[in-house]
Design goal:
The complex is a heterodimer of chains A (109) and B (114). Chain A is globular, with a radius of gyration of 13 Å. Chain A has no helices and nine strands. Chain A has 109 residues and is an all-beta fold. In chain B, strand 7 (64-68) and strand 8 (74-78) form a beta hairpin. At the A-B interface, strand 4 and strand 8 of A face strand 4, strand 5 and strand 10 of B.
Chain lengths: 109, 114
């Protein structure tokens, strides 16, 4: 499975935007970029995914570099409920998600 | 609508014992996957079942087994428990077993092996 690299932790203030980076230099042409997050004491929750173009949904935006070797998850206005571990995952034609350690996001009031 | 439900939520076993964990997927979902999450790590893939057939298996010993029933619910069985099997076991369901499908996770079963 292609590997992703994320910062161990990031900190943000409430109501401010948050940009969570992910590097995936070995991504293949058919790999989708998925983001999941895991709140304390809960199972992971789907956030967003994309292939080549930037994507927006009600939770977040995903900006994908033109060469697809990196991507950024954007939370437009962080809330305390966004404090979680965020996982960037490359998903190819197989059936499984390969999680790394993710980025622990702390949101300050 | 009910999400993915798992039972039991917590359990304690001793080394050498056997455990069965249960998962009910979201109504209409035919694919179920199992993940193990050790404290401080991301979840690790154990199995995927789709239409009652095993479609994938992670790097886990044969002590781990699973099955999917006609109603698409699933069981994960672990025999001869070791201390290292202590973890949060997560079940996830999806509409289809494709790579772009969103996975919906339950809250997990926390297993402690003493």
């Amino acid at each position: 499975d292609a590997k992703t690299t994320q910062p161990n932790s990031m900190e943000s203030n409430e109501e401010e935007p948050v940009h969570l980076p992910c590097n995936h230099s070995t991504i293949s042409g058919t790999d989708y970029i998925h983001w999941y997050r895991q709140l304390p004491s809960q199972g992971p929750e789907y956030v967003i995914h994309g292939l080549t173009s930037n994507v927006n949904n009600r939770m977040a935006s995903l900006a994908i570099a033109e060469d697809r070797k990196s991507s950024t998850l954007i939370l437009h206005r962080a809330t305390l409920r966004d404090a979680a571990v965020y996982y960037c995952i490359l998903r190819g034609s197989n059936y499984k998600l390969t999680f790394g350690k993710g980025t622990l996001l702390t949101v300050n009031p | 609508d009910a999400g993915v439900t798992q039972s039991p939520t917590h359990l304690i076993k001793t080394r050498g014992q056997h455990v069965t964990l249960r998962c009910s997927p979201i109504s209409g979902h035919k694919s179920v996957s199992w993940y193990q999450q050790v404290l401080g790590q991301g979840p690790q893939f154990i199995f995927q079942y789709y239409e009652k057939e095993e479609r994938g298996r992670g790097n886990f010993p044969d002590r781990f087994s699973a099955r999917q029933f006609p109603n698409y619910s699933s069981e994960l069985n672990v025999n001869a428990l070791l201390l290292g099997d202590s973890a949060l076991y997560l079940c996830a369901s999806s509409l289809v077993g494709q790579s772009t499908g969103e996975l919906f996770f339950g809250e997990g079963s926390r297993l402690t092996v003493l």
